[in-house]
Amino acid sequence: MATQHSRSVARLMMAPAVVLLLGWMLVPLTMTLYFSFKKYLPLRGGDLGWVGFDNYVRFVSSSSFWPAVQATLVIVGGVLVITVVLGILLAMLLDQPMWGQGVVRILVIAPFFVMPTVSALVWKNMFMDPVNGLLAHLWRFFGAEPISWLSEASMTSIIMIVSWQWLPFATLILLTAIQSLDSEQLEAAEMDGAPVLKRFYHIVLPHLSRAITIVILIQTIFLLSIFAEIFVTTGGAFGTRTLTYLIFQRVLESQNVGLGSAGGVYAIILANIVAIFLMRIVGKNLDA
Amino acid sequence: MARAVTSRRKSLNTALAWAVGLLIFFPILWTILTSFKTEAQAIASPPLFLNFDWTLENYAIVQERSDYMRFLWNSVIIAGGSTILGVIIAVPAAWAMAFVPSKRTKDILLWMLSTKMLPAVGVLYPIYLLFIRLGLLDTRGGLVVVLMLINLPIIVWMLYTYFREIPGEILEAARMDGATLKEEILYVLTPMAVPGIASTVLLNFILAWNEAFWTLNLTAVDAAPLTAFIASYSSPEGLFFAKLSAASTMAIAPILILGWFSQKQLVRGLTFGAVK
């Protein structure tokens, strides 16, 4: 068993990681809180004094706030629905016996390894360009008028791009979960004549529920802060300005640090609400 | 398996799965193909698939125009440096948590995870300001530290889940035989932990390579890695599909190859051990 000596050694070994992360969390967080109560315009007069909760009120009452909330929810929700539904179907397909399973898996996972700026630019230009994009060729082939994806269907386009990036993640995790399903149970149900949909509903879906929850929570945390995909495609135009992007613009583009920091505090609170649920699940798993 | 799968069903599965797999992979394939076309062929209508004159000129142009090698080198230093630094700090911490657990170990682990949930944009200005004050803006060193910190929770977690699988009895046996703590770590633990550490390094290298919030906001010219190199293609300029494809292919090729080796670790690393 651990002795007193080994305990203090252990504490010493944890110290660097703990101290660094504590600093990484506390220093910027304190600064953000500090700025959020100030009128602070680095390029126009600098620190103009304390303003109480003024920034918090102004951030939520600005005309761009609710559209940004809406854009965030639509993107996060849209991507979650697409990746989870397609992820389940794909995971079930990949779980079937077939030839070249390893290669197919690699093909499906590959988009996850493409850096966000690359996938956004490749989609924007080579697929969604209204004149030379592949989708425009496809539309013309069927006699339809090509769409200017990123201006006319901007949200759909962003959701498509981000879903393409995250589908592999959802598929891989759901596949891992599906593989631990007891195949005898499924076969027994099949023998008893339970139709496919019923088997899916009563056996597969309940078995996957935990993995689905984890996929949703982890993706939500990452999706709430997608940045590069919007930065290099629409730059926040055409209704694609998410909360993250709005804060970025307030802080770095218009250099209204006080206002942006108040927005940042809102973003932190929002992320923490999601995080609490994720931590519960992960924490439970630690005890097991 | 109680029942043999009919080969007809297997053929059907195979065909369907390959079709879906190729569809998902297609944007990457198309990028790679386009990078070998001339600019005129890249926008040809109808699109050309394999029947074009393969050329390497785009790669030469991209390298010449924007000095690809410099961005690549920055990516390697930033991703590699932050991963190595992170592992050096995380190995002792994860070792302590896995082998000398206390009542607070779980709380510390969950707290570390919670720092990962901090939205980057919420602390953008403070970090930006600190970088200016400390002269770290647009330096590789600064980015190494930031990326190390954002990935440190994942590194600790992954190592912890791997270390926990090493049977503690082996360590006790070594201790009985009179091994000091240093010998214990060096000769007993390290050889058993190497596969886990290798997977951790691999996944975190990939995550750091693709990180595109801090690398875009904290670099300008000198320290800009491949994420920024590609972002510089975001304003279109005449015919540029083939050049964009060549640049993209060069930016993702190294990581695609590494990524294929890390499929298994991906699940474990990104779900913090909740799905194995």
Automatic annotation (TrEMBL), chain A:
<dbReference type="Pfam" id="PF00528">
    <property type="entry name" value="BPD_transp_1"/>
</dbReference>
<dbReference type="InterPro" id="IPR035906">
    <property type="entry name" value="MetI-like_sf"/>
</dbReference>
<feature type="transmembrane region" description="Helical">
    <location>
        <begin position="103"/>
        <end position="123"/>
    </location>
</feature>
<keyword id="KW-0812">Transmembrane</keyword>
<dbReference type="GO" id="GO:0005886">
    <property type="term" value="C:plasma membrane"/>
</dbReference>
<dbReference type="InterPro" id="IPR000515">
    <property type="entry name" value="MetI-like"/>
</dbReference>
<dbReference type="GO" id="GO:0055085">
    <property type="term" value="P:transmembrane transport"/>
</dbReference>
<dbReference type="InterPro" id="IPR051393">
    <property type="entry name" value="ABC_transporter_permease"/>
</dbReference>
<comment type="similarity">
    <text>Belongs to the binding-protein-dependent transport system permease family.</text>
</comment>
<feature type="transmembrane region" description="Helical">
    <location>
        <begin position="68"/>
        <end position="91"/>
    </location>
</feature>
<keyword id="KW-1003">Cell membrane</keyword>
<keyword id="KW-0472">Membrane</keyword>
<feature type="transmembrane region" description="Helical">
    <location>
        <begin position="211"/>
        <end position="238"/>
    </location>
</feature>
<feature type="domain" description="ABC transmembrane type-1">
    <location>
        <begin position="69"/>
        <end position="278"/>
    </location>
</feature>
<protein>
    <submittedName>
        <fullName>Sorbitol ABC transporter membrane protein /mannitol ABC transporter membrane protein</fullName>
    </submittedName>
</protein>
<feature type="transmembrane region" description="Helical">
    <location>
        <begin position="258"/>
        <end position="282"/>
    </location>
</feature>
<feature type="transmembrane region" description="Helical">
    <location>
        <begin position="12"/>
        <end position="37"/>
    </location>
</feature>
<keyword id="KW-0813">Transport</keyword>
<keyword id="KW-1133">Transmembrane helix</keyword>
<feature type="transmembrane region" description="Helical">
    <location>
        <begin position="158"/>
        <end position="178"/>
    </location>
</feature>
From TrEMBL, chain B:
<feature type="transmembrane region" description="Helical">
    <location>
        <begin position="108"/>
        <end position="131"/>
    </location>
</feature>
<keyword id="KW-0813">Transport</keyword>
<dbReference type="InterPro" id="IPR000515">
    <property type="entry name" value="MetI-like"/>
</dbReference>
<keyword id="KW-1003">Cell membrane</keyword>
<feature type="transmembrane region" description="Helical">
    <location>
        <begin position="71"/>
        <end position="96"/>
    </location>
</feature>
<keyword id="KW-1133">Transmembrane helix</keyword>
<dbReference type="Pfam" id="PF00528">
    <property type="entry name" value="BPD_transp_1"/>
</dbReference>
<dbReference type="InterPro" id="IPR035906">
    <property type="entry name" value="MetI-like_sf"/>
</dbReference>
<feature type="transmembrane region" description="Helical">
    <location>
        <begin position="184"/>
        <end position="207"/>
    </location>
</feature>
<feature type="transmembrane region" description="Helical">
    <location>
        <begin position="12"/>
        <end position="33"/>
    </location>
</feature>
<feature type="transmembrane region" description="Helical">
    <location>
        <begin position="143"/>
        <end position="163"/>
    </location>
</feature>
<dbReference type="GO" id="GO:0055085">
    <property type="term" value="P:transmembrane transport"/>
</dbReference>
<feature type="transmembrane region" description="Helical">
    <location>
        <begin position="240"/>
        <end position="261"/>
    </location>
</feature>
<dbReference type="GO" id="GO:0005886">
    <property type="term" value="C:plasma membrane"/>
</dbReference>
<keyword id="KW-0812">Transmembrane</keyword>
<keyword id="KW-0472">Membrane</keyword>
<comment type="similarity">
    <text>Belongs to the binding-protein-dependent transport system permease family.</text>
</comment>
<protein>
    <submittedName>
        <fullName>Sorbitol ABC transporter membrane protein /mannitol ABC transporter membrane protein</fullName>
    </submittedName>
</protein>
<dbReference type="InterPro" id="IPR050901">
    <property type="entry name" value="BP-dep_ABC_trans_perm"/>
</dbReference>
<feature type="domain" description="ABC transmembrane type-1">
    <location>
        <begin position="72"/>
        <end position="262"/>
    </location>
</feature>
